[in-house]
Specification:
Largest sheet: 9 strands, antiparallel
GO molecular function, one term: DNA binding
Shape: elongated
Distance between the termini: 70 Å
Structural class: alpha+beta
Number of helices: 6
CATH class of the largest domain: Alpha Beta
InterPro entries: DNA_clamp_sf, DNA_polIII_beta, DNA_polIII_beta_C, DNA_polIII_beta_cen, DNA_polIII_beta_N
Subunit structure: Forms a ring-shaped head-to-tail homodimer around DNA.
CATH superfamily of the largest domain: DNA Polymerase III, subunit A, domain 2
Strand order of the largest sheet: 14-11-12-13-26-25-24-18-22
Main location: cytoplasm
Oligomer: single chain
Protein name: Beta sliding clamp
């Protein structure tokens, strides 16, 4: 096996697949990076058994300056190999495998020799034989991920809640996540019939996928098999296992009516919550209180720490209707939720001090909803 390549193109590929390589895996060969050279190009593969990433550096693309002299494959220790490639002195580098699995890396006047492993021992990637494919623009798919993964659970005691529930039915894609204290749901209408799915994708996988979707990503394609999902982004393939089990019915958690409704600028409300949480974080219960005086059209955010002091701030509203209310909540949940709305106007609807309240964008409110459960303080 022998090839030469432009180092920046190679580093880009290595960085992509390294997201799936873990040093803590129980399968030693998975700490390595698999390289396969052929006439078509160079294929890089990384995996931790749960997530696998494969990217192809195309030899037809002149920017890659890839020349394959001898096809073949090898598995190299990912951490060492990545460090070597990034420190090489020249713009181009050559890699050749001789004497079995001994691998020589040269660039300019620098030369390294490292021991590789037999690529035949590397686990095969899952086969996904499904013609049904969901295709979404990169920015929309990234937004769906970022708006839902914030509500997945970190508790392994209920593994099903560590994922995002994706449902495709009647040309509508639902994505919903909850950790039983908060919920985030996003809905997207698809242009044509793309089949039916009901799967749970690990939140950790989706977070890594989101980092791979750049501003110039045109489309993300998604295919489902029995226990795997495959996302395709250009020449890169992202595989993840699916979570097994039945996701709870979250539709019944969302209140159908409300007693008090307030419209805020999401960014301004986020600022007030952040300031109040400076003190609440010093308190053992980490709670911020929101007080609504309907007759005076006044909303106050307050935080208190017995050891440090207290904070109180009036928040501007666009509109306010309904009854007076005092409600307490975890400010970190609220900050995560508000961060997903950016600078838009939002409607916050309350039913009672102990019932969950909802946040939706003032425009297109049917397609995105956040729900937070309040904290009992008495």
């Amino acid at each position: 096996m022998k090839f030469s390549i432009k180092r920046t193109a190679f580093i880009q590929g290595i960085n992509m697949v390294s997201r799936a390589i873990s040093s803590k895996t129980t399968i030693p060969i998975l700490t390595g990076l698999k390289l396969t050279a052929s006439e078509e190009g160079l294929t890089l593969t990384g995996s931790d058994a749960d997530v696998s990433i494969q990217t192809i550096i195309d030899s037809a693309d002149e920017d890659n300056e890839l020349t394959v002299s001898e096809p073949g494959s090898i598995v190299l220790p990912a951490r060492f190999f990545s460090g070597i490639v990034k420190k090489l002195p020249d713009e181009k580098m050559t890699l050749s495998v001789t004497n079995g699995f001994q691998t020589e890396i040269t660039s300019g006047t620098s030369s390294f020799t490292i021991n590789g492993l037999d690529a035949a021992d590397y686990p095969h990637l899952p086969e996904i034989n499904n013609d049904n494919e969901i295709s979404l623009s990169g920015d929309v798919f990234k937004e769906i991920i970022n708006q839902t993964v914030l509500a997945v659970s970190n508790q392994e005691s209920r593994p099903i809640l560590t994922g995002v529930h994706f449902i495709l039915k009647d040309q509508t894609l639902f994505a919903v996540a909850t950790d039983s204290h908060r919920l985030s749901q996003r809905k997207v209408e698809l242009p044509d019939n793309q089949g039916e799915y009901d799967v749970i994708i690990p939140g950790s996988s989706l977070r890594e996928l989101s980092k791979m979707i750049s501003d110039d990503t045109e489309n993300v394609k998604m295919k489902i098999s029995e226990n795997q999902v495959l996302f395709t982004i250009g020449n890169t393939f992202f595989y993840s296992r699916l979570l097994e089990g039945t996701y709870p019915d979250t539709s019944r958690l969302i209140p159908k009516d409300s007693e008090t409704d307030v419209q805020f600028d999401a960014h301004e409300l986020l600022g007030a919550i952040e300031r109040a949480s400076l003190l609440s974080h010093e308190s053992r219960n980490n709670v911020v209180k929101l007080t609504i005086n309907a007759s005076d059209k006044k909303v106050t955010i307050s935080g208190n720490s017995p050891d440090v002091g207290n904070v109180e701030e009036d928040v501007d509203t666009n509109s306010l209707s309904g009854n007076d209310l005092e409600i307490s909540f975890n400010p970190d949940y609220m900050k995560d939720a508000l961060g997903a709305f950016g600078h838009s106007m939002i409607n916050v609807s309350f039913t009672s001090p102990l019932r969950p309240f909802t946040l939706v964008p003032s425009e297109d409110g049917e397609n995105f909803i956040e729900l937070i459960t309040p904290v009992r303080t008495f």
